[in-house]
Amino acid sequence: MKIVIIGNGMVSYKFCEKIIAKAPAGTLEIVIFGEEPRPAYDRVHLSEFFSGKTADDLLMAPASWYTDNHIRLHLGDPVQQIDRVHKTVHSYKDITETYDYLIIATGSSAFVPPIPGVEKKGVFIYRTIEDLELMRDYAPKATRGVVIGGGLLGLEAAKALLDLGLSDTHVIEFAPRLMPRQIDDNGSRMLQHKLENLGLHIHTNKNTAAILGEDTISALQFADDSILEADMLVISAGIKPRDELARLAGLETGHRGGILVNEQLQTTDPSIYAIGECALYNGMIYGLVAPGYEMAEVAASHILGDQKAFTGFDMSTKLKLIGVDVASFGDPFAPADTCRSIVFEDTMKGTYQRINISGDGKLLLGGILIGDADAYNMLLQTTKNKIILPPNPEDLLIGPRGGNTETGAGVMGLPDDALICSCESVSKGAICAAVEAGNETLGDIKKCTKAGTCCGGCVPMVKDLISGTMKAQGKYIRNVICEHFTYSRQELFDLIHIKEIRSFDDALDHYGQGDGCEICKPVVASIMASLWNDMILEKGNDTVQDSNDRYLANIQKGGTYSVVPRIPGGEITPEKLLVIAQVGLKYNLYTKITGGQRIDLFGAHLSDLPAIWEELINAGFESGHAYGKALRTVKSCVGSTWCRFGLHDSVSFAIRIEERYRGLRAPHKIKSAVSGCIRECAEAQSKDFGIIATEKGWNLYVGGNGGSKPQHAILLAADLDSDTCISYIDRFLMFYIKTADPLTRTATWLNKLDGGITYLRNVVVNDSLGIAGQLEAEMQSLVDKYKCEWKEVVENPELRKRFNHFVNAPGAKDPTVKFNPLREQKKAAEWK
Amino acid sequence: MNWFYACKVTDVPANGGVCVKYGEEQIALFRFARRDTWYATQNLCPHKQQMALSRGMTGTQEGEPKIACPFHKKTFSLSDGRCLSDETECGITTYPVRIEEDHVYIGVHAG
After folding, report:
1. What stretches of chain B adopt beta strand conformation (E)?
2. Which of this chain's residues are annotated to bind [4Fe-4S] cluster (chain A) (predicted)?
């Protein structure tokens, strides 16, 4: 059977993939004609072209995929004519091919409204990689960019202009609101407000009358006679199905475009199918990728004699527009006479959520989510599967508020035929069956079901289904480290402790399998450092350290490193400041004060690190361990030595603490601070452990952190004298180091700890486990073994050798490292 | 195939990598000491175009040797260069390695 496909976009590719998988090997001959110069690529993620992806990254499959599957692919060669009588097609490059079945997958082109001046230089459409390349080449000349069209594609195009560096970007919409087809007035207002806060200028109710300028665009003129100056214009006012060929061949088309198809995607000629955005089914063009894939599935099945039908497709969608969540599902606009709506609008957070509920209150019909679309997957499933709503349906949006309210059984409560991945049409039942068959990781599920491989929106639900199914099978889900060590970190910690293991190879020989990987190596290295405090680059353990530990510096954009000497408590003499200044000047480093009251020097070449540190160490500095999962800084306010409010000398205590725990390695970084009074200028309550002076002594707080989920530290013990305070910190830190999962900060660890702060207080303060003495002794031994790692490297020629970019050209710097000027200093060149 | 001398066996840390200069090119060389096998790839990580793979961490995934880039932990197969952690990411070029006594040679295509 010979199939010819016109067009090589995402849907065309998907059709090939599906029919190859279904047909017996060797029975198909497939020929594709594509207009564009490259094979099918991911148009959904087109804007990533401007945020670092290359055209090759976006390919659906490399060119070799087509040859491997015996597909003849003619690129840059559009079909010119279809001869239905002789069942042949004829191409631009004069190739004639016969067909048994012809698939038209020509997609759509940008709809360009007939505005005078659209032919001027600087006017673009946003559709193909070529369009993007033209925009990219033109953008450096432009400062103000304008997009006509405030729909989904228009906002995507606006994002592209922002990514191209046009900070002055405007969006023009003819309708009174953005995304008029997907969201309602209030949702649109919220979206507009959020986008404006992000720096986008939005003009609604604007009808563009003309594009002004000589050869090149200079401004837009609107029907109300107002004028907006512009250097660059992108038109994204909608799509137009590519139906010209079909029309020429006498196939029936809709009067507003689109090739008429039946439920099997056949056109008015039964041996010709149309799929994707060029097909018109039941008066509708489906402008999303998921229905296109479904059409590919139905057409492929029908050609092979299987009866499947395309009966329309849910157009629910969730996306991130310039960082703002926008989702619309089911019937977003259900009218007030047949349904009731629940609306939450939070102008503080900038969220708008609307759900439409059937008149009897039992079913969810659809809704709109702006600003926060976390609930989208569950709401969509509830709508599609007609799941009976809980008594307080608003709980679906804001969660239960105490009492015994039910919100349903979560994703495990869905029926088996619930569609989880709509791009690849994978049901809940298929995913659960795959898990039961032993595919227990996300990677396995992606491989065997394809769920989650397209837009990725269903991945959180797939993960929940994996763990839910495993739990239902009675499997104990243990946090094992990776395929090489089937132990939790705490178990491995105890084993390494008992067997006194001091190298990664020994650990692997005794308790692991295989060769290790980037997950288990740093975990074992960190455990050994927490237990023995040996020099981390010795005993063959150098290559199992996380990259930053291996080079005792933080790798930065471009491949250079930063240098952070320890400045305990943030106290530094003018002499030492001079040394830092001299080093910065000599090695041409960018200098910045850090949040932890020290000085960061950026842009050091790998081969310069030992020389830089040699100078710093000679001046009395030590490593600051900014590169390690280790104690970072103990920040302090100036305290009673100068401050008129200070109760105690917070700087001296901070220095004492920082010098005690310097170099201490842990499951994650540790930060601390000491404040000299309740005004809390050192922000101690945002640290892993923080100390605040009181009239009677020190209050010790634990488990705080800043970061993406800020959390205040909790009071562990009050009014302590300095020595008791340090004993408690010893116990707290050792207990954390021994029991936490990898890469878990103290805040998360404490949140998960059974019994929480009460239990921790019992262990640390009341010694309920009888291990306080042991914890203190273990900490003391680590403290006694401390040595500055950089001092050891500087003094050891063998270790110094490791700090070279080229093994066969010692001292030579990486010639690809580039810097750009920034104010009076420099910065790393941007990612490509 | 041109075989060029890269360095001595002992110049490469056990179970780690180094970067070898070959004209204007940079090649990452890896030594799996536990299995006494060697691999070489381009030093450039395709994800953010950084010259960094030689400073990454070696390991295996279901027996397949791999390298993890130090920047964002993208992992690449050392046998065929494909990206293991992200199917949509480009692969990397691999080169054959030959050991003669304590000398390491890397094979590159002529021209």
Report:
1. 2-8, 17-22, 25-32, 37-42, 44-45, 50-51, 57-61, 64-68, 75-77, 94-95, 97-100, 103-108
2. 637, 643, 677, 681
As for the ipTM of the complex, it is 0.93
Phi-psi region of A705 (alpha: psi -120 to 50; beta: other; left: phi over 0): beta
The CATH T-level fold of domain A631-784 is Sulfite Reductase Hemoprotein; domain 1 (3.30.413)
Q: What is the pLDDT of residue A612?
A: 97
Best mutation site among A515, A517, A801, A830 for testing chain B: the one with the most B CBs within 10 Å? A515
pLDDT in tens, A100-130: 999 999 999 988 988 999 999 999 998 888 8
Shortest CA gap A276–chain B (Å): 23
Q: How far apart are CA A623 and CA A614, in angstroms?
A: 11
Return d(Cα B47, Cα A48) in angstroms, integer: 12
End-to-end CA distance of chain A: 45
How far does B108 lie from chain A, in Å, by closest CA? Answer: 17
**pLDDT per position as a tens digit, A245-255:** 999 999 999 98
| Cβ atoms A461, A377 nearer than 8 A | yes
Beta partners for residue A324, in sequence order: A321
Torsion of CA A240, A241, A244, A250, to 10 degrees: -130
- According to the 3-state scheme, what is the secondary structure of A704-759? CECCCCCECCEEEEEEECHHHHHHHHHHHHHHHHHHCCCCCCHHHHHHHCCCHHHH
Q: Which of A241-245, A753-757, B80-84 has the lowest mean pLDDT?
A: A753-757
Residues of B in contact with A505 (CB under 8 A): 34
Domain A2-108+241-303, CATH: 3.50.50.60
DSSP code of residue A53: -
**Domain extents in chain A:** 2-108+241-303, 112-237, 489-545, 631-784
A814 contact B CB<8A: yes
Does the beta carbon of B49 lie under 8 angstroms from any beta carbon of chain A? yes
**Domain B13-99 in this protein, CATH class:** mainly beta
Phi, psi of A481, deg, nearest 5: -70, -55
